[in-house]
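User: Please run a holo structure prediction.
Assistant: Happy to. Please share the sequence and the ligand.
User: Here you go; the ligand is nicotinamide-adenine-dinucleotide.
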Amino acid sequence: MKTTQKLKGQAAIVTGGDSGIGRAVAIALADAGAKVLVNFAHNHDAADEVVKIIKDAGGKAFAFQCDVSKEDEVKAMFAAAIKKYGTVDILVNNAGLQKDSKFVDMTLEQWNTVISINLTGQFLCSREAAKEFMKRGVVEKRSAAAGKIICMSSVHEIIPWAGHVNYAASKGGISMFMKSIAQELAPHKIRVVGIAPGAIQTPINKPAWETPSALNKLLELIPYNRIGQPQDVGKLAAWLASDDADYITGTTIFVDGGMALYPGFADNG
Ligand code: NAD
């Protein structure tokens, strides 16, 4: 299983590491040799299961509860990782959710919840990570960079999404957030990159794939004609965190089977 250990000796925090994409990212980073704080908001059992998978494969991990939209909880999470592993080298800002509604019916609570977790959560976690990276600097035998921040975005950072304006606005915000901090932090040898998944088979979008007719409708939007798996994103995150991607910063990689290629235009529009 472990062919390479390109993240050996590095410590990572994966937010929302107990489910779906975050779970696959945590396992992929551990598989590449990283020690992982598996963050969860509510489901301790699911986080413990991810920790067990990592430990059974010979890796190191622990679970930590934190609501990424709460400043004091985010600070406590970084303090716990630093206490356990000495530092943090990799942050994967993965936590996110949807609170869907027609625009005119959307409540302020639905708007604020999504923006607070999906966007402000990335701000709070990235700020703590950047402070730690700048304090420590580059440790050459571990990585060419002082630290890596991966921001989980979505194809909806560029594709408008009626009925999901809070979610699309949060992901559009992540795009500019990621680029702006990448510009500011690059001189400190900190890399910041985005990942924009298309349709990945996780609990967040279960209605879109749980019946054959829903899946067929979804596949019309995916030129590559298959739904994505969490591991498709996990493998990309592990690669982006490694020195193989050392010259990549301030850009977003789409992992979407072509969903962002405007498939509606494939047959003459
Ligand atoms: P998921 O529902 O399986 O996972 C979401 C994770 O976020 C869970 O672990 C949950 O506990 C965590 N979370 C929610 N609120 C939190 C909070 N306040 N603090 C900490 N953690 C919190 O869904 P997923 O598909 O794995 O989504 C992961 C990320 O990928 C999200 O940012 C989502 O927007 C993004 N994404 C998913 C898809 C997809 O098709 N599945 C597509 C594009 C982007």
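The chain has a mean pLDDT of 97.
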